[in-house]
Write a structure and sequence with these properties.
Largest sheet: 3 strands, antiparallel
Strand order of the largest sheet: 1-2-3
Distance between the termini: 50 Å
Number of strands: 3
Structural class: mainly alpha
Number of helices: 5
Order of helices and strands: HHEEEHHH
Number of domains: 1
Shape: elongated
Strand content: 5-15%
Amino acid sequence: MSTLAVAADARPARRARLVIAAALAALAGILIATEATTRAGEAILAREFIQLVAPGRAVAAGPIVYFGIGTAEVTGLNITTMCSTTVLIVPLLLLAVAIIGITRAPTARVGLGLLVGMSLAITCNMIRFASAAWAYGAYGREGFDLVHRYAGSLFVIVGFVAAFLLLLRISLKERGPRPAAVAVPDEGSLPLRRDRRSSSRRSRR
């Protein structure tokens, strides 16, 4: 009876995990389907980073961030599909789906790891955009190509790997040593103990 009760109690928890995994997979699909809208929102966020280091003001229009407004030269940074943070976020979402579906890691811990990983990936990509805009203002087209295509890309790859590992580590981290189980025998299985005193008295008689 106890085995059946445990199995019945595990079913709702398993269903909840499957629902969460399906929701994360659906979110990944939505991000891919609406990547144009996502890039427009990403440009708004990138504008805040770019105007910290680039000359003049920065304005976002669709997936393009224009910076240098108010100076002699205005430049536009176009966030393409391959440069978008969606390329980094979707694999992290799918990894979280796999962790929830395959392992018994707590969903709250997986959610925390996913949040940390996505925050790191987004921040690294924003730093790349800002660095590319700064390099263009300081060194022209050559500086932009060097930072955006090479140094910036390498920086984002390292950040993505770190986000990937953080998601795994936080999700699969053990809670600590479990207390040792104490076996309590049933009353019917208790061994019969004979009183030595009573047995010795009987032997004397």
